[in-house]
C-alpha cells in the first residue's frame, strides 16, 4: 500500500519537463494572441486611413489625448536628441539684441511678441504655435539650440535656414531666454519693431522703381549703416559691386545666413542695386560683412 501510494503521489505531480512544456504552450499561445491582435489593429488602422475617415483638416484640431501624446513625444525626443553644448554668454546684450531683431520679423508672426499678438493665420494652425515666454524655463539652452536648429516635424516650426551658423542660432536662444524680461517698449527699442501688420511688408525695403527705404535695413544695421555698435556688420560706405555680390550670395545661398537669406531672397536685382547705392553713399568706418 505504501508503495502504491508513493507511486500514485509521484504520478500526480508534474515533473520539471512537464511544467516547462505547459509554460511554453501558454507563452506561445499568448504570443499568437498578441500577434493576432496587433495584425487586427494594424489592419483596422490601415482600413481607417484608406477609407479617409481620419480628418486632416486643421479646423478639426487634435483631441486632448492626441495633443498630450504628441507634446510628450516631442519633449522626450528633444531630451534624447539634443546634445549638451557649451553655450556662449547668453546674457550678452549684443547677442540678445541680435536675436530680438530677427525674432521680430522671423518669429513674432507665429509666436507673438511683447505687445504683438501672433498673426491670425498662425492662430489657425494645428498645432497652434505656442507663446515662448516660458521656453527658457521649460528647456535647457542646449535643447533650445537643437529645436531652433532642427525645427519640429508635423508643426510649422522650420529648421534654421543656415545650419552652419551657430552664432545666429545662439542669438535666438539668448533672446528666447530673456523674452520674459521684455515689455512692449523695451522690445520695440531693442528690435526696432513698431508692431502692427508691417511684418507682411518689412522684408521688401525697396519698391520697384521707387526710392530706397532704409528703415527695415536700419533695424539691424542702424540708420547710418554702421551696425548698431557691433550688433550687425557695418555696411556704410561699402562699394556697390561688393554690396551687390554679398547680397546675391546671400540670396543664392552661397553665403549662409538665417538672418540675411530671407531678406535677400525677397529682393530683385534692381532693389539690391538701389540698396547698394544708398549704403555706398554713407560715410564709412571700414567694416565689411
From TrEMBL:
The keyword Metal-binding is annotated on this UniProt entry: yes
Keywords: Heme, Iron, Membrane, Metal-binding, Transmembrane, Transmembrane helix
Keyword hit for Transferase: no
A family per Pfam: Cytochrome_CBB3
Alphabetized GO MF terms: electron transfer activity; heme binding; metal ion binding
Cytochrome c domain ranges (all copies): 94-180, 204-283
Protein name: Cytochrome c-554(548)
Phylogenetic placement of the source organism: Bacteria, Pseudomonadati, Pseudomonadota, Alphaproteobacteria, Hyphomicrobiales
